[in-house]
Design brief:
This protein has 436 residues and is α+β, with helices and mostly antiparallel strands. The protein has helices spanning 3-11, 15-40, 47-90, 110-116, 120-123, 183-242, 247-270, 282-299, 319-335, 388-398; strands spanning 95-100, 105-108, 144-151, 157-167, 174-181, 274-281, 302-307, 314-317, 341-350, 353-360, 402-407, 413-420, 431-434. It has a five-stranded antiparallel β-sheet.
Length: 436
């Protein structure tokens, strides 16, 4: 495109500029004709003949000027833009085709031919339903998007995503369809789901094996521990009567009790207790939980904040296990704030669920622990077993809820428990449930 045409295209972007330029050219031509006309016509010619001659000369002058200045450049601009658009569409990576209001295919680009493995003669002039059988014939509004099945020339069906819009044309109603092959994306999604199912199946198998092993080992350890603890308690009493030092035996007893707690946690994780589902108020559970932790909060100078709506929120589940879940989260928060801080438990109702957030102002969760937060035996506590959060999540899942943990933007950790306000079958208020 020449510099003159480029400059003219910038000038002619506005209809007002085009009108102004036409009037200026016509006025200039008229002035020139009026100045030249007396010198080229005899004086004996009448006014009528002079007017006709004036109009003829004006037409002969204005027509070439208008063509050379306006119409010619605009025509070249239109041809170049049309060629550019055709080149872009023809070489586009997306499949693009046009069809009329009857569904007859009018044009298609190279990607469309490759997608349907056919020739232009096989597509153009045929109904679009021949390659996309379920595409509607009429459309109420534009643009529209569909996820349908298309068929290639070899009768092979494959999934496509179609976007249909209306082409601005005054002569006929033309629609543009942009197609994208979803074969590979759906195959990748299917593979991802297969891997997720395999991972979940492997995890379930591992957990079942771990539960079986843990139950056997815990039983074998707990019985000797109980005997040792009883013997130490008996000897403590006899040593105290004779005045012998009992510090070592007390230390042994403390360590045995700690081992016993670990074994009991392992048993709770491997063989969860049966639960009784019934309707209960979340406010009452939070009230009992706050009573259990308030004493420790005072001793550690931790500010306890319970934010709960005044309206009663009734859930269906095992209130004792929900209390155990919230108590475990609260005790974990207190463990990381030995020198004071703030523990907040907030209830946030939302549609058919409630969200219970347990936040603290401690150092937060280590980044290396976030991916394996609920993994068995993963812990940062020196004397921790790493089963408490796993038990909490299993309680949440048994109540058709979720439990997640992350670091709060304001510092500290935040655990979010989401529970449904009503179970899918609310006609049965009380039932037995296994947390397996």
């Amino acid at each position: 495109m020449s510099s003159r045409v480029s400059a003219l295209s910038n000038i002619l972007r506005s209809p007002l500029r085009i009108l102004t330029l036409v009037l200026l050219l016509v006025f200039t031509a008229e002035v020139a004709v009026m100045l030249v006309l007396p010198f080229i016509t005899p004086n004996v010619i009448g006014e009528g003949v002079r007017a006709v001659l004036d109009a003829f000369l004006l037409t002969m002058v204005c027509a070439p000027v208008l063509w050379w200045v306006i119409i010619g450049p605009l025509r070249r601009i239109a041809i170049q833009e049309h060629q550019r658009s055709e080149t872009i569409v023809a070489n586009a990576s997306e499949s693009i085709l046009t069809f009329d209001r009857f569904g007859t295919i009018l044009s298609c680009n190279r990607s469309t031919l490759e997608l349907f493995q056919g020739s232009a003669e096989q597509l153009i002039g045929n109904p679009i339903q021949s390659i996309i059988p379920d595409l509607p014939v009429t459309f109420a509004t534009f643009p529209l998007a569909f996820r349908l099945s298309a068929v290639r020339s070899n009768r092979e069906f494959f999934p496509v995503q179609i976007s249909v819009s209306e082409y601005p044309s005054e002569s006929q109603n033309v629609r543009i369809a942009i197609l994208r092959d979803l074969t590979w994306s759906e195959r990748a999604e299917q593979e991802r789901l297969e891997r997720a199912r395999e991972t979940e199946a492997l995890r379930t198998q591992q957990m079942a094996t771990l539960a079986q092993l843990a139950t056997g080992v815990a039983h074998e350890i707990r019985n000797p521990l109980t005997s040792i603890k009883m013997l130490i308690q008996v000897n403590l009493a006899s040593f105290a009567k004779t005045g012998l030092p009992t510090d070592d035996l007390e230390l042994v007893e403390q360590e045995i009790r700690r081992m016993e707690r670990s074994v009991n946690s392992l048993l709770d994780y491997a063989r969860p207790e049966k639960s009784e589902f019934a309707a209960f108020s979340i406010q009452s559970v939070l009230r009992r939980t706050s009573q259990l932790v308030s004493g420790r909060c005072q001793s550690q100078n931790v500010q306890l904040s319970i934010n709960v709506p005044t309206d009663s929120l009734t859930l269906v589940g095992d209130s004792a296990q929900i209390q155990q879940l919230l108590l475990n989260l609260s005790l974990n928060a207190l463990d990381v704030m030995p020198d004071g801080g703030k523990l907040e438990i907030a209830v946030l109702p939302k549609e058919s669920t409630i969200r219970i957030a347990v936040r603290d102002t401690g150092p937060g969760i280590e980044s290396s622990m976030l991916p394996q937060l609920f993994t068995p035996f993963a812990t940062t506590k020196p004397n921790g077993v790493g089963l408490g959060l796993g038990i909490c999540r299993r309680i949440a899942e048994a109540h058709h809820g979720t439990l997640s943990g992350t670091n709060s933007p304001n510092g500290g950790a935040e655990f979010l428990l989401t529970l449904p306000i009503a179970l899918p079958d609310t006609s049965i208020i009380t039932k037995k449930s296994n947390l397996e």
